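Lecture 7 notes: from sequence to structure.

We start with a single chain of 205 residues. Read the sequence below before looking at the structure.
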Amino acid sequence: MSIKSNQETSNTDDRTSAELHQVLTGVQDALTDEMVSRLVQTLSSSAGLLDQLGRSSADKAIPLLSEMIENGDLERVVQLARLLSAAQDSVTDEMIVRLTDLISGAMNLLDRLNRSGLDRLVAALPRMIEMFERLEQEHVVDDLVRSLEEVTAVTASSAPARGGLKGLWSIARDTDTQETLSFLLLLSKQFRTFRTVRQATQNNL
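Now the structure, written as tokens:
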């Protein structure tokens, strides 16, 4: 019984070896030199690609790609790439020429502003902002606007001026008129003093 079982096993192995030999022989006959050459090139390219991926530490990018796929970021990147591609396809030569002209005009404008003393204006901006903030804190602008409104209303409802020396003398005798003139005179005097000092400083340079 044991001898018969061993013979059957041996016969099965022989048949399997024979079938495997036939398969290998068929594959060998089917492979041409061109197919073998292509297969070698493919294997060589694959090996080179794997070597490049290993050297570039691509394994570190795999977790990041997985996270981008789960969050949907990769899909958004693809959509953005498609949008940029569509924008690139829609840009014509005429649009590029117009954009170039626009950029050139903007550069010329900046150059003119720079030559006209824009740097001095920018340097003076902090002081101007500080002055406007002080005027706002002291409600100077608000008071000025309200004064203009009141003066406009009073002028519209008051009688016309009488004119002549008598009317002028009456205005000159008014206390408010004298205080206003004094304020304007002091302002003019102070302004002339500043301008004189500045002119002397520029002449000494």
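The chain has nine helices and no strands. Keep this in mind for problem set 3.
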